[in-house]
């Protein structure tokens, strides 16, 4: 350590200032455990060793050393904003040392020079390296990362470890702290648990620097590494001239990442039902999910249009709700535009990914998945219909919220729009509309799915292969009937993500009284002409699908007892 980074109070007490912004200590930022940048346990050992050598008027690389009864009482967190100040002291006579941060003791132990007759080195030949089956550097640090250790830089020193976790090799990066820390990592890997462990005590640690550096010099210049051995039955780790005995590691709770957990229920919902009411949030959610399901895309653009005739306030806008629904889908990248000429809505506060613009400023190729609007069926504006429909992609959707129950459906037929969803929301009606798809009944392959006879799998494979080779665009209809419990829906979702999977459709019959599936049956053919991937029919000839909706918030209740478990002592 440079003289500028330490303050000598007396020969047995020194204050070290450690700043990770300095080049000398920059490597310490690679020692991250449980999401925190911690000062390495072996860093305390190294600086006490360096200080003790200075007391004896020697270079630390020239002086063998023995540490005993080391206790790590508290970890030190490093930050780029603040320096840490550590006070190192060694008592005269007993050679007991103490390291203090602020006014708190964080490490204690004893240091001494080995006597001439002390030779307790474990033979390096007592364990042969296991060449059959090993973990490489990438495997090792993936496993450690899963346990909560996010090492980087020279703290990723383990090059390889045997599958038994008894031996391996450590890279020499001319850094004693990182090398000894890698030895402790070997011990952590050897524990038959994925709990997060940190060393809190070491009974004995010996360092013979001359012997260690001699072994280093005998290695290849381009591949400086030394073997490491972990003797689990002895609780000892050895590598080069360093031996560590009696490591005690303590469990600490893994720090959970702060994420927004989405709790949902998966339930059947009818597409067209004016008898029962549904919340606006759930109606919009099921509409967006259905649109994404049909188009199978990751980059989504949605427009909400407000006409000058719409008597709406900022509280009536659906854009923030649309943004929240799409934010619950981490794989979807989305852009939402609020298109309006309302001057009072031009300066409202909206999330960053919602922009406000005017119809005249939109491009001719918006290619939107969905356009949201209000009372469109009451407005006899042919030009407005053309404008809104021109904003959609070929398979896009138009969602309108109608205040009146008396809607002029003739406009739909005139503009070739099919009703996909029609639901009552209090005194309003929500309609999800889609351009009529050109689908004929002779454009289908029908495959009946069975839970007990899987010959249909080979049939499906051959049809998909044939279509991929011939570039055919015939829809493949997977039909599940006479069995209410089927994995059909999950299968369809997976198949549609595969190349050529966009032609996959499904009919799930959950009605024992429904007629057998046939392309000549109007009940099924009318639904298939909507060209939806998922079609579920329930009793009463009700068509719908299974959707995810947020769980209702739980209300806290008083209880008579509770269970508490203390994991850290």
TrEMBL record:
Residues 1-265 form the PKS/mFAS DH domain. The lineage of its organism: Eukaryota, Metazoa, Ecdysozoa, Arthropoda, Hexapoda. It comes from Cardiocondyla obscurior. Coiled coil: none annotated. Residues 1-118 are annotated as: N-terminal hotdog fold. Transmembrane segments: none annotated. The active site is at 31 (proton acceptor), 181 (proton donor). It holds the Pfam family FAS_pseudo-KR. Residues 132-265 are annotated as: C-terminal hotdog fold. GO terms for biological process: fatty acid biosynthetic process. InterPro entries: FAS_pseudo-KR (IPR049391), PKS_dehydratase_sf (IPR042104), PKS_mFAS_DH (IPR049900), PKS_NRPS_Biosynth_Enz (IPR050091). PROSITE patterns: PKS_MFAS_DH (PS52019). GO terms for molecular function: fatty acid synthase activity. It comes from the Eukaryota. This is PKS/mFAS DH domain-containing protein.
């Amino acid at each position: 350590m440079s003289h500028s980074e330490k303050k000598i109070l007396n020969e047995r007490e020194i204050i070290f200032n450690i700043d990770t912004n300095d080049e000398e200590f920059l490597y310490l930022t690679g020692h991250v455990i449980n999401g925190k940048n911690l000062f390495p346990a072996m860093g305390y050992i190294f600086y006490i060793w360096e200080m003790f050598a200075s007391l004896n008027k020697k270079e630390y690389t020239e002086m063998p050393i023995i540490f005993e009864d080391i206790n790590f009482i508290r970890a030190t967190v490093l930050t780029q904003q603040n320096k840490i100040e550590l006070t190192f002291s060694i008592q005269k006579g007993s050679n007991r040392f103490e390291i203090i941060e602020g006014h708190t003791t964080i490490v204690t132990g004893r240091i001494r020079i080995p006597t001439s007759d002390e030779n307790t080195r474990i033979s390096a030949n007592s364990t042969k390296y296991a060449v059959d089956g090993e973990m490489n550097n990438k495997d090792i640090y993936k496993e450690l990362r899963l346990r909560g250790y996010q090492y980087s830089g020279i703290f990723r020193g383990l090059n390889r470890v045997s599958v038994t976790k008894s031996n391996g090799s450590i890279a020499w990066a001319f850094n004693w702290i990182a090398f000894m820390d890698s030895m402790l990592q070997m011990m952590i890997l050897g524990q038959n648990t994925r709990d997060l462990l940190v060393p809190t005590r070491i009974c004995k640690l010996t360092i013979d620097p001359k012997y260690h550096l001699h072994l280093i010099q005998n290695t290849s210049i381009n591949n400086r590494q030394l073997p490491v051995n972990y003797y689990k039955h002895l609780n000892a780790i050895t590598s080069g001239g360093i031996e560590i005995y009696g490591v005690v590691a303590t469990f600490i709770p893994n720090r959970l990442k702060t994420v927004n957990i989405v709790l949902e229920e998966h339930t059947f919902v009818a597409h067209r039902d004016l008898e029962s009411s549904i919340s606006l949030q759930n109606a919009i959610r099921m509409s967006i999910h259905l649109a994404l399901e049909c188009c199978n895309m990751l980059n989504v653009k949605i427009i909400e249009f407000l006409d000058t005739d719409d008597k709406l306030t900022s509280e009536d806008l659906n854009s923030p709700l649309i943004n929240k629904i799409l934010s619950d889908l981490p794989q979807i990248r989305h852009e939402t535009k609020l298109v309006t000429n309302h001057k009072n809505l031009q300066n409202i506060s909206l999330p960053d990914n919602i922009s406000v613009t005017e119809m005249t400023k939109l491009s001719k190729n918006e290619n939107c998945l969905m356009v949201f609007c209000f009372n469109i069926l009451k407005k006899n504006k042919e030009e407005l219909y053309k404008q809104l429909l021109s904003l959609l992609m070929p398979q896009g959707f138009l969602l309108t919220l109608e205040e009146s129950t008396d809607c002029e459906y003739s406009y739909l037929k005139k503009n070739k729009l099919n009703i996909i969803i029609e639901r009552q929301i209090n005194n309003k009606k929500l309609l999800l509309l889609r351009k009529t798809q050109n689908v004929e009944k002779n454009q289908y392959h029908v495959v009946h799915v069975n839970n007990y006879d899987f010959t249909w799998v080979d049939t499906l494979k051959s049809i998909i292969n044939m279509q991929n080779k011939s570039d055919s665009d015939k829809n493949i209809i997977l039909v599940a009937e006479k069995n209410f419990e089927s994995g059909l829906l999950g299968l369809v979702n997976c198949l549609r993500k595969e190349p050529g999977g966009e032609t996959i459709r499904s009919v799930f019959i959950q009605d024992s009284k429904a007629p057998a599936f046939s392309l000549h049956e109007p009940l099924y053919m009318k639904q298939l002409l909507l060209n939806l991937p998922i079609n579920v029919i329930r009793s009463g000839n009700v068509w719908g699908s299974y959707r995810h909706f947020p769980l209702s918030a739980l209300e806290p209740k008083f209880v008579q007892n509770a269970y508490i478990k203390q994991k850290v002592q």
